[in-house]
Amino acid sequence: MKKFVFTMVIGATALTVGPAMSADQADQIMRGQYQAVLGDCAGCHNQPGGKPLAGGLPLETPFGTLVAPNITPDRTTGIGNWTETDFHNAMKTGIGHNGVRLYPAMPYPAYTRMNDRDISDLWAYLTTVEPVSNKVEANRLPFPLNIRLAMLGWNALNFTEEAFKPDPAKSAEWNRGAYIVQGPGHCGTCHTPKSFLGADKDSGFLQGASLQGWFAPDITGNAQSGLGKWSEGDLVRYLKTGVNAHSIASGPMAEAVENSTSKMTDPDLKAVAVYLKSLSPDPGNTQPAKPDEARMATGEAIYRDNCSACHGGDGDGAGELFPALAGNSIVAQGNTETLARVVLAGSQAVHTTHAPTTPAMPSLAWRLKDQEIADVLTYVRGSWGNNAPAVSSGDVAAVRKQLLP
C-alpha cells in the first residue's frame, strides 16, 4: 500500500506528519491533533525550549511538585511502549501503562467525559509526533504523597468514571460547548474551587480557584465576578485573541489562549461561549461593600499617580490596549491574588495571530509598598460600581513573598 506524508494546518500552526497508510488514517490523525489543541496538551507537556510533548515542565500543586511526563512515542522515556488500551485507560480512569496510577494534575476527572472516538483520534496523533529521548522524573511529591497507591483511596472518594451525557433539552451547539468545557477543555481543573484533598467542589463549578499563584476567576454568569457583563461575542474574542474590552489574558490563561483556545475553530469557540453564558450565576453577596473613606482617599491619590495614565481617571481604560477597571469582573473577584500579583510583578498580553500587539503593565513592586498596593486596590475595587471588599496589606505581602526568588 502506498505511503504518503501530509501537512495539516490548525489555526496558524502547520504540522507535517507521516507516513500515513490511508486517507482515513490521515483524517484520524488530523482530528487527533485538534483534540490535542482542545486538551491543551502543549500547556503541560511542552517545556520552554524543549521538543514538543517531551515533558519536563514543573507543575506546582498545593501538595508539592509534579513534572509533566514525556508523551512522545519514544520507547524508553515516553509512551512508545504503551498500547491504545493503556492510553484509553489513562484518559478514562487515571490508570496508565503497567497499572500506574496517575495524579489528577493530569486531568483524567475531566477527560473521562471524552468519547472513545476522540480518545482514539488523540492516540493516533500522538503516535505520529517525533519521538524524543527525555527521561522525566514526574513524581516529586514528598512522602507519603509520592506513594501512588494512595490514589486508590482518592479515586474512591473523589472520582467517578463517566461519559459526557448530552442534555436533550438543549441545542446541539450548547451540548458541544458543554462537552468541550467539561471534557477535553477541562476548564474546571483551574476554575473550580478545590477541597482539602484537591478534588473539585461540584457545588462551586467554575466559580474560581487559586492556581500556581494566580486566581482562575469565576466564569459563570455572575454579574459582578463572572461573565454576566460579557456578551457571547466578547467571550469568543477573548478566547480567540486573548483580549477584549473587559480583560487581557495573563498568567496560566495566557498560555491556554496561546496553545489552545486561539487555535480552536470558530464554531467551537461559539459553542463554548453559548454554554458558559447559560450557567446560572451564584447570587453571592449582593450587598455593596462599605469602603473605609480614609483608605479610599489614599488609594485614589495612588491611582492618579500610578494607574490613571493607562486605565483612565474614571477607570474606563483604553479599548483593548488597557482594559477598563470599571465594572471589571476580574477586579471584583472574591480572591485578590491575581490583582496583587499583576501590580507586583506586572503582566504582558499573550501574542496571538488575531491580536499580535502585546501591551504590558510594568511591575510596581519596587515603587509601592504593600499597604500602598492594598490601598490602591481597595480604591479600584470600591469605585465605578465594582462594590468589592477591601484588600489587606497582609494579602499583598503574601503574594510578594511568593514572588521572591
From TrEMBL:
Binding site for heme c 3: 307, 310-311
UniProt-annotated binding residues for heme c 1: 41, 44-45
Binding-site positions, heme c 2: 187, 190-191
Keyword terms of this UniProt record: Cell membrane, Electron transport, Heme, Iron, Membrane, Metal-binding, Repeat, Respiratory chain, Signal, Transport
Subcellular location: Cell membrane
Cofactor: record remark: Binds 3 heme c groups covalently per subunit.
A Gene Ontology molecular function term of the record: electron transfer activity
Protein name as it appears in the record: Alcohol dehydrogenase
